Amino acid sequence: KEHTGILSLGAPPGNLLADPVFIPSETLIQWTSDPSLKGILVHGMGRHFSAGADLEYLTRMASSEEKTAERMDEGKKILTHLESLPVPVVAAIQGVCFGGGLEIALACHIRLCAQNALFAFPEVNHGIIPGLGGTVRLQQTVNPAAALTMILGGDTINAEEALRIGLVDHIYPREELFSAALALLHKITSNRQPEVIHAVMNALRHASKMTEEEAMREETRMYCKLAKKE
């Protein structure tokens, strides 16, 4: 839609993830390589974002530890690719956002949710733990005590609690959520050249991944490159 890519989780009603590799990595890489792309909106089709993994598939996959590790690693690569994109990725979350669905949302840079949104990592109730980076990304997003309580407790929290602990950034009425997410992406990207968007995203990522000295040096390098072009 114009310069915004829309990634839909499309297996209603629950948008269950039949496989940790919920989109072929080659498809995602090709789609996100479009030079005109300025932002991405991730949402679930229908009433829910995603109820998480298909437990029947997980049970069959678990018969082979090697296959399980391979598929989980591939799924993590997809989320790392989303998280590392040099354009903002916004999750628009309504209904349930559980397990693997929440791990997808955590890989997005901004999370907006509807008033009816519910969040949970129910994996412990099935004798497992989040396996697509959820234990890492949740603790990077909320305080460690909230992350521990949410993952080990396996409890469901509502939109207000998610906002309170910093899991989401804003709550909207359900009927306004999708348009609000598109409007946010339009507001922060429409009048910006792709190279400026890329520089901002890369600089912010450097700030969290590099030493302060390295991040400052990269910031200066990108500033000079952009300024010279002017």
Task: Sum up the structure in keywords.
5-stranded parallel sheet; 230 residues; globular; alpha/beta
Question: Would you mind describing this structure in some detail?
Answer:
With 230 residues, the chain is α/β, with parallel strands linked by helices. It is built from ten helices and eight strands. It has a five-stranded parallel sheet, sandwiched between helices. A three-stranded mixed sheet has the order 4-6-7. The radius of gyration is 18 Å and the shape is globular. The mean pLDDT is 95.
Quick structural summary:
This protein has 230 residues and is of the alpha/beta class. The chain contains ten helices and eight strands.
Give the spatial strand order of the biggest sheet: 1-2-3-5-8
Strand share of the residues?
Answer: 5-15%
The largest β sheet comes out as: 5 strands, parallel
Order of helices and strands: EHEHHEEHEEHHEHEHHH
Low-pLDDT segments, ≥5 res: none
What would the average pLDDT be, to the nearest integer?
95
* Cα end-to-end separation: 29 Å
Total beta strand runs? 8
The general outline is globular
Number of helices: 10
Structural class: alpha/beta
Radius of gyration, whole Å: 18 Å
Helix content: 40-55%
